[in-house]
Amino acid sequence: MKKVTTLFASVMMLSAVMFGQTAQIPDFKNVPMLLKADGSLAKLEKVVAEVKSKTKGFSYGASVVTFVNILGEKSPVVIDPADASFIVKMPDAETDPETAWNLTKVIPAKKTRELELAQSAAAIGAAFGAKGKSVKRDDIKLEYEKVEPGVYKFRPVTPLAGGTEYALQNTISGATSNTTVFCFGTSGTAPKK
């Protein structure tokens, strides 16, 4: 009986070591980190990007699109879509992470990536009552798990697409002439349009 008890205790301790690994806590607030399976952290591509505007369409149907211009066609950080798990330390324990962060697909362009923020009617169209189209972004819903006060693990509710570029954007800080986004790409083949 003593051997069975010792064996059971050994198995339980080994299981606790293997499966009970706790995640590290990020050093800095509002800097999401990739959370690896072993609980260690890895940096995402941190980009201070310029907020720009451009006109789409012609005449009365024209609209002005405001977007974040991210230099480089692809992020140097590439993860397996199945391993998309992150952790963030919020500015304080009372901040709701669900209202603070967006995970969004970014649009690859020539030597840049674009993250659309807003779209409104161009001045000439607005003068005649035209309304711009609303931006149809590919925001991905996130689920959060509290690790400790003000620290949350989070992951996408639906699986991410392979071969796609994504950005995490803090929605509380607001976009001025420059904004910080955290980018990564996923391994695999991009879905056909």
Explain this structure to me?
This protein is mainly beta and 193 residues long. It has one domain. It contains two helices and 14 strands. The strands form two sheets. Strands 3, 4, 5, 7, 8, 9, 10, 13 and 14 form a nine-stranded mixed beta sheet that branches. A five-stranded antiparallel beta sheet has the order 2-1-6-12-11, with no helix packed on it. The longest helix is centred in the first third of the chain and has 18 residues.
In short:
This protein has helices at 2-19, 123-127, and strands at residues 33-35, 41-42, 45-56, 63-71, 78-79, 86-89, 101-105, 107-109, 112-121, 139-140, 142-148, 151-156, 165-170, 178-186. With 193 residues, the protein is mainly beta. It has one domain (23-186).
> What structural category characterises the helix and strand content?
mainly beta
Sequence of secondary-structure elements? HEEEEEEEEEHEEEEE
Shape: globular
> How many separate structural domains?
1
Strand content: 35-45%
Count of alpha and pi helical runs? 2
Unreliable segments (pLDDT under 50, ≥5 consecutive)? 4-20, 123-130
Radius of gyration, taken over Cα atoms and rounded to an integer in Å: 21 Å
- The overall average pLDDT, rounded, is 79
Give the fraction of residues assigned to helices: 10-25%
* Through-space gap between termini: 64 Å
> Strand tally, please?
14
For the report, how would you describe the main beta sheet?
A: 9 strands, mixed
